Amino acid sequence: MSKTVFYDLLLIFKNSVSAVLPENLIKNSVNYSPITRKLTIANENYNLRNKNVYLIGAGKAVQNMAIEVENILSSEIKYGIVSIPVGSSTNKSLDKNKILYIEGAKNNLPDENAMTTTKKIKEFILKLTVDDFLLVVLSGGGSALLSLPKEPITLEEKTTLIKKLANSGADITELNTVRKWISDIKGGQLAMYAQPAQVVTLILSDVVGDPIDMIASGPTVQNKDNPIEAINIIKKFNLYDEIPTSIKTILEENKLSKSFPIDKVKNIIIGSNKFSIKAAASKAKLLNYFPVELSNVVTGNVSDLVNEYVKLVKTFCEFRNGNTDISKLKEQLQTLDIPGIQINFAETNDEVSAIRNKNLCLILGGETTVKVNGTGLGGRNQQFALEFSKAISELCNEFKNHDIYFLSAGTDGIDGPTDAAGAIGYTNMISDCKEANIDINTYINNNDSYNFYKKFKNGELHIMIGHTNTNVMDIHLIIIKKQK
User: What is the rounded CA–CA span in Å between residue 64 and residue 120?
Assistant: First the structure.
């Protein structure tokens, strides 16, 4: 067990998180010149001369986004409303008379407070004119914080339907399709209500693949879904006969209030899992590892992915031991059942030599799931690290001359209902457990990964970084290190 490698993994992970902190993303994406009144966002210029600037936002990470926008635009902002989670207010706004930060959506569920804030936002943007510029900041959690059912649907009717769909197995795409058609603000309607103002939305993505219409249910993104799809989703889960008349009426009316103003609306992703992976690669390189970026859209059950990640490691080790050439390595990697895996390294002599001889850092990201069979405490990242360690130790003879280390952690700093972001595993962890008289199988089968890592080596392998106020899903780091 190498404490140096553990420390390196932590440094690489922390760098991946720092790159997507809301304030850093805004600093890197937004620039303003008070002299020319030119606003530059992600290399696009906007002339604010003779424009009134307003700010609205919703999501778990938008408070720091909005505060940094305040820092940059300063006195340009006339007014703003930002919907944030209960208990998250920092009171750091530069001018509390200008920007209202209002809490709602306790436990990430739409509630009366969130609905009241959304009503305020709608009433405000309906007054905007052609002389106005509306800046919107959105992140994960925005769907619950921007909640306004279409009349005559009540909040309780809407939340009951969404809860039933989720409990029946509807995925996030299906849930958001239904949400958009029974909402008065999602699915591009916020942007439509803001017309004729110019609308620019800055998005921090917490959804695999970064589909902008799915992040916070796309309040400023044109809704291209057919309402029939929403009806079919509800019918798919045998819930259509249970829904109230109010919802049926809205879905069967099959219409939006007006056409979407494509030319007046711009949506820009300023942060995502891709950004974290790039930052992880940069830090790994500084620490003298050869970084290999493989995928930012990893999804699936942890137990299934463990098998594929073990095959991934085995494939690289076989190449490093001289058993295959670079073409065969690429060919074998493409056969792995890891979503989105891409082989981007070239076949130059230097790169081939680095993959064969340097310590490697394989980097992946996404959002996995865990089938819960037990009653223990844990999260998908801690479970992943634990199951991977067991699998890798059982096949340790297949990784001749190499030590393997694995980190799986959430960029939000929270893995499941615990205070850990994730955990680290390694090749000989199981033998070390036996020496410590710890039965790893008991913890795996009971989904009790948190208590395992709390007990094993006094918690040294737990990743504890606290709430980060950002979220671009999870980062997976695999270090393949030649034994000395």
Answer: 21
